[in-house]
Amino acid sequence: MRILFWGTPDFAVPSLRSLAEEGHDVVGVVTQPDRPAGRGQKLKPSPVKEAALEEGYPVLTPDRPRGEEFMAQVRALDPELSVVVAYGHILKPEVLELPPMASINVHASLLPELRGAAPINWAIAQGKEITGITIMRMVAGMDAGPILFQREVEIGPAETASELTARLSEIGAESLVEALALLQLGELEEREQDHALATFAPKVDRTVARVDWARDATAVANHVRAMDEVPGAWSLLAGEPVKLYRAEARAVEGGLPGTVLAASPTDGLLIATGKGAVRVGEVQPTGKRRMAALDWIRGRGVVGGDRFE
Question: Can you say whether the dihedral through the CA atoms of 129, 135, 137, 139 is positive or negative?
Fold first, then answer.
């Protein structure tokens, strides 16, 4: 099958690689333009672009996937099907419908739950124990198309968003290959989503990532897991932002929310919440690397009685 692949982050790379491994003809790859990165702010290609160039695929990097020039480039590639995996832009109907077999998407939730840009983060933040992968036929509405294939996946009790993202990227690739095989055999049945059950997973950013210590310990721990590794859950300590990682809820009471209840090599870093407390395993103070909370404690970065805000 002649496939035009659309994707940008690391999450999409296993799906791209799986297509050629299964004998499909990847006629081209559309990804976002190179972006400044690192301290030097040098232009860096997307992970999908790097993988595509390694395989020798033609690569398109439009600022916006629209306009007659771009459409002419896509027509020239003559795809039968578009496969979209975390590309990063909403595609117009004329783009979705250009391939004769239309366009399908690999989405990291069990639709209609968690439509949108950050389904993995919000699945963890909301305390879900089950998520999954959905392969759907794309329509003009965001993540609203008919479901073609789904696979459920359990979320580990301490699993972070970055860990779950890596795991779901591989499961997504496997699901994509299976769905395409069924599609070619004519055994793939579409199932309309129940739009009344739709929930949404908007993009997470620094504002969303700030910790609300008034919430209960489980909610705070889930939030910290959900924001790992980017953008990173954070809170102010003595006016300086500190990122927090590897939080676990503890049935410990005492102190105003955000108060450091313990900061020692034996007890670790324990912080009060609205109900209970969380033990934080790793931190990243301003201007420093991510480190074990015990190393920060030994360096006198925090002491009992300090308060996060």
Answer: positive
Q: Is the pLDDT of residue 184 over 90?
A: yes
CA-CA distance, 10 to 161, in Å (whole number)? Answer: 13
Q: What is the pLDDT of residues 263-305, one digit of tens each?
A: 998 889 999 999 999 999 999 999 999 999 999 999 989 999 9
Contact 57, 26 (CB under 8 A): yes
Cβ neighbours of residue 132 closer than 8 Å, sequence gap 6 or more: 108, 109, 110, 150, 151, 152, 153
305: left (phi over 0), alpha (psi -120 to 50) or beta: left
Closest CA to 161 of 198, 140, 195, 131: 131
Q: How far apart are CA 245 and CA 187, in angstroms?
A: 44
240-254 tens-digit pLDDT: 999 999 999 999 988
